[in-house]
Amino acid sequence: MKVVALAGGVGGAKLVDGLASLLLPDDLSIIVNTADDFEYLTLKISPDLDTVCYTLAGLANPVTGWGRLDETWQVFKAVGSLGGPDWFRLGDHDLATHLVRTQCLNQGQTLSGITQAFCRNWGIRHPVYPMSDDPVRTIVNTVDGESLGFQIYFVKRACQPVVESFTFQGAKDARPVPEALQKIQQSDLVIFAPSNPWVSIDPILSVPGYREAISEKPVVAVSPLIGGKALKGPAAKMYRELGVQPSAAAVADHYREFLAGFVMDRIDQGQLEKIERWRIIALVTDILMKDKQSRIRLAGEVLEFGETILNRSR
Ligand code: FO1
């Protein structure tokens, strides 16, 4: 079975890591949100790409989920002591990634080419693609009339501003990475990892071409919400502020046009009937990924569920 997974940051990276433990590199491709990317201290930062790659390489910081394992903070501290910006923390080893990526981008290389080279160096065998080599930026429009760059909203303002809507700046003119689009076209199953639907998966779908290609394929989404709460990040808060009660069913509804299957936690069992009424097949299981073993267990269940869905439609 050929699988393509769409992922954002920490939650998505964990499932993708589980999938990569079970599928050969020819059978799993990963497309990552790059609408969180921004420039900081002149460096081009791609947080979700790095989170996915560090996780796959076994280099991720297990406490934060982002950044690197066994990190040191000498440069970050020195920048702060000079009065430089310190609201976004870059560790010394992580900094190397941003320095090299920035240099390569400035020399005219593509983000997808650089990512491929980084993956080779980090021993990642499964193909990881940024959603686009063109810049797309999530802008958070707030009820106070502000338009905030994603990292300003997420890190500097700690997700406090109340969201009114999102704009994916540049999306209309962005092109999908050709190989990524081709992987979708050649796939049997597309998986939406348990990432934030509003600001991780929607930006990928906003790049012309992906939505159409994905519509042709069976899609299984894994809920990023358990009992109406996100394990990490502002997804539940965003649903509330946008006038939707956060729940597994709200996520399934969000993706309704695509979904053949939906994976949700046991705690949300009560919403099963509602979701099945939308002709979505649901799998109820334990979706919390607290260690490597549970990532692999959940990935295995998602793949088996995907196979069942494929067999039903044959
Ligand atoms: N998240 C934070 O909450 N605070 C930080 O200082 C921070 C630094 C950071 C550095 C590199 C990187 O790749 C990610 C970093 N993140 C930080 C996480 C990042 O803001 C989020 O993962 C996303 O963009 C949301 O998916």
Keywords:
314 residues; alpha/beta; seven-stranded parallel β-sheet; three-stranded antiparallel β-sheet; 13 helices; 42% helix; globular; binds ligand FO1
Q: What is the SS-derived class?
A: alpha/beta
What's the β-strand tally?
14
What separation lies between the terminal Cα atoms?
14 Å
**Strands across the major sheet, in which order?**
5-2-1-9-10-13-14
Description of the molecule:
The chain has a 7-stranded parallel β-sheet, with helices on both faces. The chain has a 3-stranded antiparallel β-sheet with strand order 7-6-8. A two-stranded antiparallel sheet has the order 3-4. The longest helix is centred in the C-terminal third of the chain and has 22 residues. A hairpin with a 2-residue loop joins β3 and β4. The mean pLDDT is 97. α1 packs parallel to α2 and α1 packs across α13. It is globular, with a radius of gyration of 19 Å. Helix content is 42%, strand content 19%. With 314 residues, it is an alpha/beta fold. The two termini are 14 Å apart. The protein is built from 13 helices and 14 strands. Bound molecules: ligand FO1. Ligand FO1 binds next to α2 and α6.
